[in-house]
Structures are given as C-alpha cells and as structure tokens.
Amino acid sequence: xxxxxxxxxxxxxxxxxxxxxxxxxxxxxxxxxxxxxxxxxxxxxxxxxxxxxxxxxxxxxxxxxxxxxxxxxxxxxxxxxxxxxxxxxxxxxxxxxxxxxxxxxxxxxxxxxxxxxxxxxxxxxxxxxxxxxxxxxxxxxxxxxxxxxxxxxxxxxxxxxxxxxxxxxxxxxxxxxxxxxxxxxxxxxxxxxxxxxxxxxxxxxxxxxxxxxxxxxxxxxxxx
Length: 224
Prior knowledge:
- The chain has helices at residues 2-11, 13-20, 25-33, 41-57, 60-64, 68-93, 98-141, 175-190, and strands spanning 153-156, 159-162, 168-171, 198-203, 209-214, 221-223.
- With 224 residues, it is α+β, with helices and mostly antiparallel strands.
- It has 2 domains: 2-128, no CATH class; 153-223, no CATH class.
- The strands form 2 sheets. The chain has a 3-stranded antiparallel sheet with strand order 1-2-3, with no helix packed on it.
- Strand 4 and strand 5 form a beta hairpin.
- The radius of gyration is 36 Å and the shape is rod-shaped.
- The model is unreliable at 1-24 (pLDDT under 50).
C-alpha cells in the first residue's frame, strides 16, 4: 500500500513540475535523502526557515561593521535574496502556500530584532570597555592622589585637587611641578628606606594646608 501511495505521489503533476525546476542546495540536499511527497513538504518548509535564519546569523560580523540603519537594510536585503529564491521554486511547483509568506515575514522580523538586540549589546559592551580603558589610561598617566590612593589629581586654578576625595593637596603650584617634587622625594626616600611613607595634610605658615610626607620607619619627614 505504501509503495502504491509513493508511486502516486511521484506521478503527481505538481511533484513532476517541481522536480523539473532548478533547485537550491538546501532543496537538493533534502531531496537526496527524502523523496518529495505531500507527507514531507512541511519538513522541507522547516528546513528552509532554519536555513534562512542560519544564513542571516552568519552575517553578524558584516552587519556590525555597518551603522544601525545599514543593519536593518542589510538584514532585509539578505533575507529577500533567500526567501525570493525559495519562493520562486516552491511557487512554480504549486507547493507554496499563502501562509508561508507570513511565516517568512515573521522570521525576517524576528531575525532583525535578534540582530538589533545583539548589535546594541555589542555596542554597549564596547562603550563600557572603552570607558574602562580611558579610566585606566587616565590613572596610569595621571598623578594618583596620595591621600585616598584611588582618585587622580587635577589642576583647578592655582590649586591641585583630587577628583575622588576632593582634597586640596597643594595651592599656588602647577600639577607638573607637584609631580616632579613628589617623584623626587619618593626616589630619595626609597634610596635609604624600603618602607612606604604615609601622607597627611597639615597647616602651614601661609594659613593653608601642605602635604606632609612621613615615614615611621626611618623617621624621615618633609613637606611638598
């Protein structure tokens, strides 16, 4: 009985017409393992949908190098190339249903949403990475605050202020001069002592605050 049904399916004018059409690789691969019959047409449609989504996802890197508007255009164009090819093949055979158009349109929109979501996630990740790199670069190339050890010093008019703890480290001094003075004192100290000095602000004779460098090990003390 199954053999009779199979023979009838093969002799169907629709199937015969489809067999004469030029087929895409996915259809050829499907036919090589599964004879075309009304019982497996739905499986063929599923394979086509999966292939559409797979080929679109493979475009990710290419799409990411484009702008957001180009992303939408490229996804739509790529999808149209795929779907038109399959549509022409199945429509010429009479096997393509009207509902398949809506299915393809939904796949296109879902895939576009996936790519845009991925694009936004990648963009956010890159922005965050750049911000971290800029922050690290600023810390490496800036003068670290000797009081809080987490902020960096910045020139504010004639004062040198920490952008983290807001402490006024020095007045009437340029940041470059302060850094040179700090480096010199630390180099001199390291030449005679391996301990790390501490820093504190103390009043000076000019009714302002000065940064005091102290070492409890070698009893060395000086101001900047």
